[in-house]
Specification:
Length: 345
């Protein structure tokens, strides 16, 4: 058996489960470690949400990629209750997939190691944005049929080998690579509201660094925040309070995320606590028009209903003060309170 399966463990998500859920977790873990295509679930208590536990196991062990987690069948017989995992290839094919994933993960990690924790996680976040695309077709199939057509778009293999994934594939890729860098990482399963699709089921990550935990949603930054070649950091290392503006989950199932010291905006002097600071940031950005404007606004700054137009106008006013006229392409995320703009000719 390859190393990637031998490294399965009880991780960050396991500690948040009830004793009955932990028992179910261990049963699933044992089945996955042996690459089982079916197993007896009779010992699992009836009141345990099996799909919830499944997501926790896979969040702690994103290297498990051999079955279709969107299509799991349960059957009962005199022999007990059986869980059947669908879409499983032969064991030789599973081992080949594991080896491919192992090789790819090692190659990526070799380019990320070095530097402090913040630098490593930023480089990982940027790698995923630059090398993965969201599988829109898979999303539409799920919305239409209730199940997808590309099972690997839901795991780290599809994300890292095929470069194509939906949210659980993005989260699986991040968790796998973060764990290889030495960080504990888990899935958060809930719902998120965005300007394109409204409220949808969604999965993102929590990573633990030096006993502090942070939310990260690389899916939304890749699909919603990114502007052309410019990367997005709006959902990088958020607190519970920050991400709760457009994400909803059972907070009792996750460790507290109460620190914002890994915020991209704080680290780069792009977090405005007052209108004066905001104008200064716009003025500074105007002096190098080749770079985009990125700012995050604290709730100390009150905004009118047309916040996006208001901020754009303010940025243009500060640009004029530097002696240049300009036009801006811009976006405003009212949930993250992040403003992005780029000068155009």
């Amino acid at each position: 058996m390859t190393e990637i399966l031998m490294n399965m463990c009880e991780g960050l998500g396991y500690s948040r489960l009830s004793p009955q859920e932990q028992q179910a977790y261990k049963i699933l873990l044992k089945a996955f470690a042996s690459m089982s295509t079916s197993f007896d679930s009779s010992p699992i208590a009836k009141n345990v949400d099996l799909m919830k536990v499944l997501q926790v196991v896979l969040g702690d062990n994103p290297n498990v990629v051999y079955f279709n987690k969107t299509e799991i069948k349960i059957s009962s017989s005199l022999l007990g209750k059986q869980i059947r995992l669908m879409g499983c290839p032969s064991k030789s094919q599973i081992l080949k997939m594991n080896a491919e994933l192992e090789s790819k993960a090692n190659a990526i990690i070799s380019t990320i190691r070095g530097g402090d924790e913040y630098s490593q996680l930023i480089k990982l976040y940027e790698y995923l944005q630059n090398n993965m695309k969201y599988d829109e077709q898979e999303l539409q199939e799920i919305l239409k049929r209730g199940s997808g057509i590309r099972q690997n778009s839901h795991n780290a293999y599809g994300a890292l080998i095929n470069g194509l994934a939906v949210c659980d594939g993005f989260s699986g890729a991040f968790a796998l690579l973060a764990q290889r860098l030495g960080y504990k990482c888990m899935f958060v399963s809930g719902r998120s509201t965005n300007r394109l699709m409204g409220a949808v089921d969604h999965i993102w990550n929590i990573v633990k660094v030096n006993n502090r935990c942070y939310h990260l949603d690389v899916t939304w930054d890749t699909t919603l925040g990114r502007q052309g070649k410019d990367l997005s950091y709006e959902y990088f290392a958020l607190t519970d309070e920050e991400i709760a503006s457009d994400h909803d989950w059972d907070i009792n199932t996750t460790p507290a995320c109460s620190y914002n010291d890994f915020s991209f905006f704080l680290r780069n002097g792009l977090y405005a606590n007052s209108t004066g600071q905001l104008r200064d940031m716009f003025k500074t950005s105007s002096k190098n028009r080749r770079l985009p404007i990125r700012v995050k606004l604290s709730y100390n700054i009150s905004l009118p209903p047309n916040a996006d137009e208001y901020l754009c106008q303010m940025a243009l006013e500060e640009a004029v003060k530097t002696g240049t006229s300009a036009q801006l392409e811009y976006t405003w995320n009212e949930h993250t309170r992040c403003f992005f703009a780029r000068f155009v000719s």
